[in-house]
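Teaching assistant here, posting this on the class forum so everyone can see the example we discussed in section. The complex has two components, and the goal was to see what a joint structure prediction looks like when all of them are supplied at once.
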Amino acid sequence: MFLVTPDFQKHPATVAPDSPVLNISELSKSYVMGEVQVDALKSVSVKFYAGELVVLLGASGSGKSTLINIIGGLDVPSSGKLFFHGREITAATEAELTAYRRRSIGFVFQFYNLISSLTALENVQLVTEIAEHPMSAKEALLLVGLGHRLDHFPAQLSGGEQQRVAIARAIAKRPELLLCDEPTGALDFQTGKLVLDVLEKVNRELGTTTLVITHNASIAGMADRVVRLRSGEIVEDRKNLERLSPSELVW
Amino acid sequence: MKPLQRKLWRELLHLKGQMLAVAAVVACGISVFVSMSSVKYSLEASRERYYSRFRFADLFVEVKRAPEFYREMVSRIPGVASVSTRIIADVTLDVPGLDEPATARLVSIPEYRTPVLNDIFLKKGRYIEPGKPEEVIVSKPFLEANHLVPGDHISAVINGRKKELLIVGMGLSPEYIYEVQPGSFFPDKRRFGVFWMSRRALESAMNMSGAFNNMSLTLAHGASEKDVIMQLDNLFRRYGSLGAYGRSEQLSDRFIVDEIKQVGIQITFLPVVFLAVAVFLLNVVLRRLVATQRDQIAVLKAMGYSNEDVGLHYLGFALIPTAVGSVAGTLLGAWLGRGLMNIYGDFYNFAELVYYFRFEDVALSVLLSFGAAVFGALGAVRKAVQLPPAEAMRPESPAIYKPGFFDRESLRSKIPVSLRIIVRNLERRRWKAALSVLMISLAVAILVAGRFTYDSTERMVQVEFSEKHREDVTVLFNTPMPPSVAYAIASLDGVLEHEYYREESVKMGFGHRVRRQSIRGLQSSEGLQRLVDKNNRRLTLPPDGVVLTKTLADILGVRVGDRMQVDFLQGKQLHREVVVSGTIDEILGLSAYMNLGALNRLAGDGGALNAAYLRIDQAKAATLYTTFKKMPGVAGIMMLKAMKESFDELIAQSMTTSTLILTTFACVLAFAVVYNGARISLSERARELSSLRVLGMTETEVSVILLGEQALLTILAIPVGFLIGIGLSWLLAEGLSSELYRLPLVFSAYNFFFAFMVIIIVSALSGLLVRRRLVTLDLVEVLKTRE
């Protein structure tokens, strides 16, 4: 059992303090890539609590992306269980998974994955269309500082701007869980910090439980908690005593 | 509009070239289906309406002369609903402005207008007035071709006496929707016309008072045509009946029924090809789209879009071009159908040719197209739906290549890298390559088949108008003449060559099969009329026995060497047997040929002649024609040249139109397949090709790799297309063949050359379009993006 994070106490209304948002137990995943079998996750158990900003650290191939994909309901584990607010996600049907992703999860990817044929605003509307109590698409873009780029197509935006559109798209539905897979992986230092600023702001202002995957250890400083993976196993799970603001990070 | 819809529209717009190609293919298929179905229905309905409104008869009997009271007797035969009797006679006409005599078929009508069978549709002018024997109503094609109008006079030689006739009306009859001179296959509007004349006038002119020589009747519902025919034949045998016959042997109806059947064949074959290609195109285009949008599919699913949302979204890429194609195809089909009906209107003389554009046809074709679209898209859509989101986010694992045939040690060093890339690509996806070849070859095949009907018709013209007949005119006698008539004709100034034939109506029988047929007795098969089969091979007429056209032999079930029954219907009405001494596969009609002497012996009389073939001195033609116009025994003359002209005018025009349509559609097909193929391979290999460019290959070298693949497929497709085209033509020839004519299976070198050139040009054009895209590829952008 982990300690309740100070951040969580700022938002006591979300859930009972001691029950985790995510409870992962003995999760394993292996898949075949070409002609090679890869054990991406080996019996991983971990819990995440409401409002936490967690950095999942690990080199490429450590299994962090697989873990986040399973958490997001994009992938199914080979064995083990995953509970979201006590509901077993690993036992959900395809339709339930779709609903889970639609209601509760926001994704940010390394390569932004914006729909190139839609403008920034429309990319966000893609989510606000189908969410239950979304903020307006414009509001989400204002939150990430892109109020002036609403009608630009992805090709007309810089990498950092594209990633901020992706974040706006992820948070517009007010998800409980924001999953970010190497959000700064494709960005330079300055732009990357800008994106992390936005993530920190969202976590702080909206209280969204946020998991950030990175191979960049310097980012760990901005987290409430750091979980380190290596070869599909959790090798470290520590709490930062003090959360740094992204602008203080150096790498 | 929802964002997903916006994505759909924008990306459709982005893929407009490929999508338009799909839409064009769908449009071609639908337009053919819609136009042909509507034409078929319109012809059927127009025929039905015409027949019932103007009481077209079910059965016809021609006799020499029978007393009028037989009408009463016939009407009492069980199954007979109504009976009309008429006097019909073929006479020569002196048409102003026409040197040669024309033929009028005089058909009697009641002096006071009463409803009769085979009634007249009075298009212009008025009905004849009682007590005015000179008044006639004349068929529309003849009047129009000779620029005559009601009010004009025309003189005819009726029963040896010259008569001045007054045209009072322009008419049409269901009996002559296809108006040709008896014994001819093609209309000659200037030289043959139907003249409706008062019964009383004809009775007195032909010495037929109280008698008739033509009877038509309708049958009661459910009556047996066969039984009634048998009774009629028994009744009228002694009056020189040539045997009663039903609509199926009525030439005009036969032509229309065959025409409708042929239109029906075209409804099936072309749209099927187009739909198959549409299915193929949608399949490849959508598979590629889903492959390039793997990450987007993943992201949509990650956001919570359901499988149905995603599936429907991608299905939209198939349905929208199909919808566009359906609308365009329907409009095009309506237009084409109207145009075709106009051509039919020139060819067939309907009282009213109504063009029915039916919702059912449109609905059915659109439904079929959408079915095809869904079928084509299904594979790709299913892939998009089944793609697990996490899987989708990983880049597609590199395609697996294996060493193929050209990677053998012995060959490897000799083949340049670019060619190796091309060949490996094709080898890796053999099925896709084979399908692409098949689709391009279908375009080639349509070109070949379209051109085939043209070549086939050319052959028909060549055989029928040059090889088979060398005469300038055929002089038809109105009654059988004694052989001595030859002296009279030979003595005419201007006759260079003369030859005669006898035409005897008989009933041929073999086993239980019986057929009304005429036997033509020819003096020789080496003179003015020759025996030439559809493959342009000549046949010598044996001194004995009968030569049957292959179709007739098949109908009777006889083979060479069989002895067949022959019942002469006129003269001594002998019952004889004759050996089938040969068969000939002719293009037109059903025929039986005998040596004239042998036929005379078989008929057991001193011989008779029905017509003369003449080659004449053109300088003396005018004088000769004047003589013929006055000659009492002459019913009319047929001119080969005029028939060829009218054939060229009528058939060639519709032939050219349909060849043009087929060629255009085949080009659309070829373009759609080749262009899409190249676009897809550009999209699949943009990274690879950009890498090669970055490595220092020139634009041309890279183009060779990209377009070389398409070029290779096209080259492979051409011979395959030739073969399919030949097969398709064979099917078409079989389907379109009837008792009236058989299409000879001929392919000119030009046909293949034309198809070859069209495909090469279309492929080069689509290659150029794709190359333009290749050259403008943003190398850095392509390499930067994750595939």
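For the discussion questions: The radius of gyration of chain B is 34 Å. The mean pLDDT of chain B is 87. Think about how each of these relates to the inputs above.
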